[in-house]
Amino acid sequence: MTDTQNVNTGTAAKAAEQTVKLRPTLYIGVGGTGMEVMMRVRRRILNASWGSDNVRLENLSQFPIAQFMHFDLDQGAIIDSGRAQTEDLQYNLVKFTDDEKIVESFDIEKYSRDDASLSRYPHIQNWLPLTPRKIRELGIDPAKGAGQIRSVSRLYFFDKYPKTRDKIRSKLNTLKAGLSRDDMLRKLNLQLDTSKFRIVVLGSVAGGTGSGSFLDMGWLSKWVASNEVEAADVELMLFLPTGYSSANKARTEANAYAALMEVESAMVGHSKYVEKWDDYDRPQLASKPYDEVHLIDSGNLARQHTDNMNDVYSMIADTLFEDFRSADFANRKRSVAVNQRQHKIHMFAPPVPTGRFGDMKLNYSCAYSAFGQSTLDTLGRARYDEYAYSLAADMLKAFFGVASANPAANRASEKKRDAFMAENMNLNLVPFNNLPEFSAATLKNPEIRELNTEFMDLEIVDILLRSGQNGVEVDIAEETRQRVSQRISEISIIDREQWANEVRKTMQSLMRDVIRNTDAMADTAEDRVMRRRKALFESLKKDIESRLYLYLDNHEQGGFEYVISLVEQIKDRIENANSGITLQLKNSANRYTAIKDALLTYEYEKQLKDLEETKGKGLLAIFGGGNKEEQARAVLDNLRKDIANILSFHLRAKAALEAIELMQDISNWLGNSLGVDESGKTIWNGVMGDLQSGQESVIDMMKRLDHDREVIHQQIRTKHATLQIIETEDVKEREIDPRLMCEWAAEAFKDFGGSKELFKILVDPDQQTPLLLKIIRMAERRLVIFEQNDQEEDALYKALENMSVVERQNVFTEWLQRAMPWVDAKMGGDFTPPPDRFKCFIGVNGADQFSKKYKHELTGCIPSGLGLNAQALSIVETGEPGRAVCYVELSGIPLTILRGIETWRTSYRKESERTPLHTHIDSTRFKHPYAPTPDELNSLADDFKCYLKAVMLGVLKRCDVPGLIPSGQYEFAVARGDVRRLGNERGFRLNGLPQTYRDNIYDQVQQKFKSLSDANLTMLIALVDHYEREIYTPRLVQNETGAQVEHVGFACAIAKELKKELIELAERKEIPQELIERAYELTEYREEMEKWAEVLKDSDEDAYQDEIREPNKGRRLKWVMNMSPSILQIHEQLLVKNSMADVVPIATFAMPGMTPPPTPGAMPPPILQQPQYQYHIAINGQNFGPYPHSKVVEMLQQQQINSATMVWREGLANWIAIAQCPELAIPVPPPIPSIPPILQ
């Protein structure tokens, strides 16, 4: 987690342990496993109480020090296992937003539409092990995931690289911005280390998406962090395959083994796994993708196992969540990695058979760690939550007035209904006594006399006759009377003879102004009444709705049950066939119409007739006497009244009819029955339906609370792999006044704007969660106050004290066993970690008290045989009563100790024959993560030794085809003209020589070896020595004293073994040591080696770089012997001292069967052996031979054949001309000169 510590301190005292404060953290989940853990961490953040005020977060945006990012192909992975989205109270709060995920459609076809598709993306083509054709054959649906094919996931990563890079950058910048939220950090009591950030990548090696992208994600996160923040540690939580065996066991194990090969190579450093992700960015990538790698499995060191991966997800989430606490336990736990880093920088070298391999080191990275966490819990918190949910349901019941024990007690009465309708719907009963004046003759009719009596009408009729604009209202009926009066007044000033006629015209005109007919174009009084009715409907709806919500808010007499009963009675009052409002209004309309008709029939027509009589010498004039003018005007005034009454009563009838329609509209708006449901309950629409839905929603919420409370109740009695429940008494329930609960709920809901806004939330399932959380949080706050007042003893101490010593020891033993690091490893064999690699912290409320009481018992319960001892155990403070947490971490372990890794490799071998398992086309760049058995090691050593000889002697030749993947491949002549590529050195290191060609290679190497002369053997010894010293130079490692010691790698050890065997053979052949030393000298300079050896192009990349020493200068290229017979023949001359080489012509050593004369005073060189080739000669299309070398030379000298004659021998791929065969193309040596006589 911090800079690497210097571990080469000798016997100096260890540096004081560092304390790591809480760091802003970005969690990146790759694949479904990452999602599972992150969802659980998010829930814990929301459900925790923070700070001294026990603050509960309403959403994750209030937690500024954690950001999340989900990277996946599977678009269906949206919620943690064991939960249903529709029933999850917190789903909308914990689900990943679009800003937090890269879970998108993937157009894989653009890389596979045709065989040339991939060539357009060379930065992908150079690593992708899948061809376009193979992708098409697999038929992968990316929306459902990577199909357990790791390279598909990596292809998705490259495809989404720009978005992934920008998302990481955005999240880190959000974390930086969150550091300025001092108020929130203080409120949550979070003490931050702002100098460094933390990135945690979570994924498994078993599946597709996570297994195929976790390495790229690590390198990318490191690179982006280096540019965006001051410093950051990047950690990996890597889940092993054991827990995923139900999802195609063979494939998950094979994927896991391939992934472990890759991570092993990556954590050694400089693996060149990735250089860039697109054609634009040129990232400067770190040598390793991660600072810390934590291994996680479904079994632990104490052989505790779980079949349910949810247990493991929960343990990891608990462990990660603890890092957000600021107590001593969290501080110490966070500091383990930095203080244990000294154990992760070394390599693990398992023991090897020293008889053969001596001090050879097979190096495996110890960069890995494992941890476990187990909890002793009295479940006081869970029981507290259970009671909080129950209290929240009671608060909802009290606030909304539902599910009461006596629903009839909260039902609206008829009196309250009538008062509501009178006040809010203008349905007050008012007497109508503004009756017309009928003549005495008309009143003799009993029906007319009955009509002309006072009766009760409804206020709404008068309201509908009011119209106005800009806030000024007028009475339409009164306005009509005034128009009648005005028109009659206008008639009274014209010629009296025209009065009757003008009255008729006026009556018709006024009727057109008042009454709507189909031909009318102008606005009428009836239209104004209709518009008034429509406007009043909208106004009444608002008033009624507002008043209903006021009743909902009136928690003493209102509530859902009251309001629903009120609406039901309003509808009945409107629609009742015997006594309803509409019936009453219909009676009023009929009565107004009857009065209008009586006036028209009995009064209006009679008055018109009388007006006619006042003209000229009519009867009225003759018999009436008096002034005809006065009589006419009296009749005209009566007509003024009658016409006004006729039109007025017509409008009142119209208003009554419009009131009926208005009441029907209101009734329909309030709701109509749509039938009954399966339980026989009436189904409503309209306001009644909304109220009914709201009531049902509240009841459903209460059911959800009851359901969640039941889930908590079940969890209280369910043991998990890392949770031990200690039974205690249930939380004491309290008698609380419903009115007080109603006040608490009102306080919780005050930010929602009252019942009207709450009602909208109630009927929207997506918005119910915040409402429920509000009520739950309020219930929790109230319970906290009760707890503070009670001040009871810590339930954990009380429970432990009530146990016997034996019971307590059993609890402690099981607790510590479950807290052992959750990695199933073989301990005590080749790898036994020293005690200082373990750290064990027990976090508890009242650490000093707990230590005094129980530490002695705890130390006796530590699992034996693992390396953990009492000195590694520390008891530290958490400040959380009722529970104790034990955290154990083991640092510096190699992958080779994983139990089951050999089985995983078996699956790897099987599955690799079907579909590529690696995320790179060159699988030879990766190393096996486990140590071979002695038999396997011996077999690999034999094959590698044979490989070295095959390369040096030309049996395996470097393939010159450019751009091959993997690079550095060798080819082998299986038969004449049949040359095949076999792989590269790393492939032979991994798996030995190919079984198909192994015996053939051994045979050809043996044949070559047997054909070597003593001089050839001597030069071969020098070449092997060169490999040992210069090609596979042992790596220098600094020990605890600061001294550098050699770590001999596998290749170097085999070169040593080969050299030893060859020297022993030379001793048996009595080859002088001086010649061997001379041969060694010939390897020191390039110009000397070029005389007898050839360079293998780019062979400096063959060896594992972590095994060999970095070269001092230049490239470390392999050399192989030039197996040309002419060159083989000069080996002896090269071995002669320089003084001899100056006197003796080299050509003399090339004569068949001859030994060069010794120089005076010099030791004679050993006899050289001629090549043992047998030659076939083609003359005129016929094959002759085979002939030995001497015979062919003789035929050349006698000119029986010439240099153009075609020849073939073993080792040649095809027939060639003699001139092209080096050993046959040499000139015939001159005769040996005579030796001069000795001078006297």
From TrEMBL:
InterPro entries linked: GYF_2, Tubulin-like, Tubulin/FtsZ_GTPase_sf
Domain of life according to the entry: Bacteria
Domain GYF: 1175-1224
Record's protein name: GYF domain-containing protein
Organism encoding this protein: Acinetobacter pseudolwoffii
